[in-house]
Structure formats: structure tokens, C-alpha cells
Amino acid sequence: MVKVYSTPTCAYCVTLKKFLTEKGIQFEAVDVSQDEAALKEMVAKSGQMGVPVINIDGQIVVGFNRNKIVELLNIKE
Amino acid sequence: MHDLIIIGAGPAGLSAAIYAARKKMNLLVLADDDRGQTAEAHQVENYLGIPSISGNELNDKFREHAKILGIEIGDGNDVEKITGNGNSFEITAGGKSYSAKCLIVATGKKYRELDVPGAKEFKGKGITYCATCDAPMFKNKAVAVVGAGDAGQDAAWQLIKYANKIYLLNKYPELRGDNRQMQEQLKTHPQVEIFNNCEPMEIKGEGFVESLTIKCNGNGREQEIPVNGIFVEIGSVPASKFLAGMVELNDKEEIVVDPKTNMSSRPGIFAAGDVTNVPHKQMIIAAGEGAKAALSVYEYLKQSK
Lengths: 77, 305
Prior knowledge:
The complex is a heterodimer of chains A (77) and B (305).
Chain A: E1 2-6, H1 11-22, E2 28-31, H2 36-46, E3 53-56, E4 59-62, H3 66-73
Chain B: E1 2-7, H1 11-22, E2 27-30, H2 36-40, H3 55-68, E3 73-74, E4 79-85, E5 88-93, E6 96-105, E7 109-111, E8 127-128, H4 131-134, E9 142-146, H5 150-159, E10 165-169, H6 180-188, E11 192-195, E12 198-206, E13 208-216, E14 222-226, E15 229-232, E16 236-238, E17 269-271, H7 283-303
Parallel strand pairs in B: 1-2, 1-6, 2-3, 6-17, 8-15, 9-10, 9-15, 10-11
Antiparallel strand pairs in B: 4-5, 5-6, 7-16, 12-13, 13-14
Helix pairs in contact in B: 1-3, 1-7
């Protein structure tokens, strides 16, 4: 399961979601500026407050860290 | 080997790429994963022909334009090293190496990091360098903006929508900058409190930011303000470190370029945009400088044939 925590105004969040879509990865996207429970969940899981955060089967990646995400999702580039 | 490698995919880099592609140069653009200062700009309202647009959308338009011309943008490539051997340059980026006859460096600037106790420890834990990204996370919270120049004022203005209290920390006696109208509105806004002549001393908290200690008017008395968020806007530094020793940098670490040709002190390495010593760090100027640099590369390659 892939879940993306983001805000609508953050450029890296847009880039991350676009990247996943281009690579054909299905994901759930939550807007932490609107959903307070999701914000708390994101802070608890990542130990920090910056967006985007991506949860890939329980592995947390903070920011748009392309190489890490490619590796965890086993994407062929 | 490429004719030209452009490092950076902001307005300077992509404008250079478009001009170079139209001259049929064999080129490659290398970009790191940092979306850059254009993409992080909240609103851009001074780019010719586009009255108002978010920086991210404008950056996407630049990329789309480049893609229409078939320009290859190699993302995720942090340039680690550049070496020159006579007539060509070798670039190490993202673990691979590339070679080109000429380079255009258009890496722009990166934000300057706050340097007080707690600043490193609480980065991402209440301290943020991107108001556009993170302002919505501080709904009904008290926050401080460190730095009250144009960017700090803009951050405070964006935060009014979310935070219930915004402390704006200004090291000068008065607000300065271009947008007089915004300054007047900030001064009278009930959610905003401006601290003139003040500087940050320390950030404290348990796990996450809980307070900012400040010192004002140069006297020894310190004051601790309870805040959950700290937005830092204290200027930026040129992304030129990887070129140290290769080309002349000025005392601000900007690449010194010939104003007519955009060539650096080393023949074959050109530069454009905010990373150079050209004054006025503006997107439209960067785009123009990128075009100039690409045309100069074209002339340079023609002459060196």
C-alpha cells in the first residue's frame, strides 16, 4: 500500500504525485492541511512535519527522494 | 560527447536549453531533485505575458516547452564534480559521468540556513524553509517568521490564512522591501506582531518546536516567545560550491561572468541566472541571461571548430 501525505501548495508534493502517476503506481493521497487526523498520523509516523511524506508498505520516506522511492517501489527507470 | 550540458532546470537553464535546441546543438540538461526557487515561489506576478501564476505552474510550463522541442531533462542528478581536460569537460552526477564541449551553469540559489542553537535539531520539526509548502500545517497555531525582507513579508502574509498569531522578526528598525502596500497591511493586521531590531537566539522544545528566544535593540535582555512553527526567510546563497577552484567566484560566491557573453573565467564554462554576479535576481532576467548564454555557446563552438 502506498500513501502520500501532502498539502495542495507544495511543489514537491505535486512532483511526487505526478511521478507516481507516470510510473503507474496506485496510491492514496491525503491532504494534511484539511485532515487533522492524517496530519497527526504523518507526524507520528515520520517524526517530523515537512511534506511530502510517502508511506510505502510501512517504509517512510520524507521529501521527494527519487532514488529511495524508486528503490522501494522497484521502479525500472 | 554532447556539445552542451546545462546544469539546472529553472528559467535560466531551460531558456538556454530552448535556444540551444533551436540551434540544433546536441544537448543535455541535468537537474537535481530540488525543484528550485521558481517552483517554490508562492505567486509570480511579474513574468511578461502571465499576469499571475504559481511558481510551480510556471516551472511546469518551462518544462513542457522544453519537452515539446525534444529536450532531455535528466532529473535526480546532483552534480558532484566537474573536471576539464583541454577542449572538453567531464561531469560526475548521480553516480554517472557525462562529457561535453561546453557547460552552462544555471543552478540558481538555495535558501540560507538559520544558524542558532536548536536550528539544526528542529529542522522539519517546526522549522521550515518553505512557507508555500508548509503554511497550511500551522492552522490555529502561533508561528514566527525569521527575516522580514520581501520573502519574510510574503511568508507572513501567506500564514495569515492559517496561523492565529504571527510574529515577524525584523533585524532592521523598519520593514524594508518592494511591496509597500503589503507592509502597511502587515503592520495593522490583528494577527501579526512585528518585532523590529530583533534577532533570533535559540529554539527550544521537546521533540518539536515550542519556543523561540529573541533579543531586541542590542541589549542583553532576552525574550522567549511560545511558537509551534518557525519560518526562516533570511536570504539565499548561490549554488556554486561544486565549481570552487574551477571558475572565479566573487565574495558572495556568485560566478563572475562576462556581461556580454556569459562566459566565466574558464573558456567553455558559461553561466546564467541567479548563480551569477548579474544583479537583480528575477525569473525574467534569468530567462534572458539563459538565452544569451546559449547563443554565446553557439558562437563559441562555431569559432573553435
